[in-house]
Amino acid sequence: MFHPLYRHLLVIALLVCFSAAAQAQRVHRFGLQVGAASPIGDFKKDRFEDDYPPMARRGVNVQGTYRVDVKPYLAVGASAGFRFHRFDMDAFAAPDDALALRREATGWKSTHTLADLYLQTPPGTLFGYVKGSLGGAHNQSPEVQVDTPYGPIRRSSDTALALAYGIASGFAIQDGRFLLSLDIGLLATQPAFEVTNAQGVRSTLKQPMHTINSTLGLSYTL
């Protein structure tokens, strides 16, 4: 479950966003963003010196967005999305390894919901923006199994909720009712997964799942 502080921060952010949006008639935009999500820091480690190297590959990030301009230089909104990263099975157990009789793995998954705040140049045909985001994410670790002549090597999957936050910058082009945007930024979360070692002992692993996302978006303006 969320720490009480996380819930309070999320509620405050949502209240600020939607109370500001309700003050007057505004320009509303609904859109979809699609792009690449590249693991950074501990999320991309593949060192076997670590007990549970994440071995996350470059993945995909898809999210729906809502945005409303409340001032020429300020917009607020919300976004909900999904990230997926393959587990690097070839690094964990090479395809030509004679001891790996069978190899299977699911991927790292993360579903997030965020409140967004934009600082922007006055909207026109072309304008730039910086975006800050705060919310929560539901995360899932991969399930891994490699069968060997000496027995299986397993990693069980687990799910966990965690605070999520992000920052991004980009630019947008308005063409009639359509807005085309391109941005790059950080999306971060650090869930605590329950893991089991080879002796069957359970422990908690705090796994950073930070990515740099490059996304292309298309929005419809009301």
Q: Would you mind describing this structure in some detail?
A:
The chain is mainly β and 222 residues long. It has one domain: Porin, CATH 2.40.160. Strand 7 and strand 8 form a beta hairpin. The two termini are 37 Å apart. InterPro entries: Beta-barrel_OMP (IPR027385).
Topology (SSEs and partners):
Elements: H1 4-21, E1 27-39, E2 59-71, E3 74-85, H2 89-92, E4 102-105, E5 108-120, E6 126-140, E7 144-148, E8 151-155, E9 159-175, E10 178-189, E11 192-196, E12 202-206, E13 211-221
Antiparallel strand pairs: 1-2, 1-13, 2-3, 3-5, 4-7, 5-6, 6-9, 7-8, 9-10, 10-13, 11-12
Keywords: Signal
Organism: Pontibacter virosus
Signal peptide: 1-24
The rounded Rg comes to 20 Å
Low-confidence runs: 19-24
Tally of alpha and pi helices: 2
The portion of residues forming beta strands comes to over 45%
CATH topology heading: Porin
**Mean pLDDT score:** 87
Reported for the largest beta sheet, the result is:
8 strands, antiparallel, barrel
Number of separate domains: 1
Termini Cα gap: 37 Å
CATH arch. level architecture: Beta Barrel
The amount of helix comes to: under 10%
Total DSSP E strands: 13
What pattern of helices and strands is seen along the backbone? HEEEHEEEEEEEEEE
Please list the strands of the largest sheet in the order they lie side by side.
1-2-3-5-6-9-10-13
Shape category: elongated
CATH top level is Mainly Beta
Domain Outer membrane protein beta-barrel: 11-190
Protein name: Outer membrane protein with beta-barrel domain
Signal peptide: 1-24
Pfam families: OMP_b-brl (PF13505)
